[in-house]
Predict the 3D structure of the following.
Amino acid sequence: MKRARVGALLLAVALVMTACQQKPGAQVEGGELTIGVGGQPLLVYLPTTLAQQLGYYEEEGLKVKLEDLQGGSKALQAMQGGSVDVVSGYYDHTIQMQAKKKEVKSFVTMLRYPSIVLAVSPKASRPINSIADLAGANVGVTAPGSSTDFFLKYLLGKHGLDPAAANVQGIGGDAGAVAAMEQGRVDAAVMIDPAISVLQTRVGADQVKILTDTRTAQGVQEDFGVPAYPAAVLYSSAEWLANNGDTARKLANAIVKTLRWIEKHSPDEIAARMPAEYAQGDRGVYVQAIGRAKESFSRDGTMPADGAQAVHRVLSQFDAEIAAAPVDLTRTYSNDYLPR
């Protein structure tokens, strides 16, 4: 009898959890929604959190819950499963999904440079002096299938290697990534600030060999051959956008207001508004990293057509599915939700 009661209780809990999980693409009620972030402490997603810290979501009549996930691929999976409504992730996932005949669309652009750094661990198990030396090496990314993973595959292919030549390991993007590099659990890693700045401070900048750096216009030009390369965006399914157009416009407005606020305030003022734990115990390094990152943020949230084309061109170089698919880029993003 006791076992039967326990079984009935577990079934009831499961039914409640199933009922609470929203159907993917469903209309949100009362302005309540969840944004999945592919590594919330990372500076590339700073506007998503800062908009909440500044009260801009609330000003738009929205009740936004931010869910921190290990990487962009995990955030995308959460959206597909219905546990988050919108993703704060990289634009390239919308192209990846269209190649799979799934409609996913970005509606506000936060980052115009990828701001990704490929660095060598000071305790690498082998000499690594160039990207060609990564063949057979253990290389960390935020999560397999994430944009950091895409970046690694692109660079390997660009330098004449098989895109799968390195052994990819998911190490997250913040403290976990720093520890993996500091302890030599990986030979190299694709990193994002503030993690790369924290690592350089802890072990010495001269002990961390940088193979490539896309935090600046020069780095983007060298790696991608374009002056700007759209990266972090808010995106959701085409179905969700069709059912929640007004909510999407409010989200886009909150993000654009945040981007304008970032442009007008100092790195120290920006850091003061962010959760203290994001600094990983060194506020000075965090402020410096924000100072370097300011240049990379979009000014108005717009997705440039040539930027979308550049992302598609890069992805096509290492992903055969994307290269073969009839991708309509105009269906992977929209600027119609931005404030006019």
About this structure: The domain at 116-213 is CATH 3.40.190.10 (D-Maltodextrin-Binding Protein; domain 2). The mean pLDDT is 91.
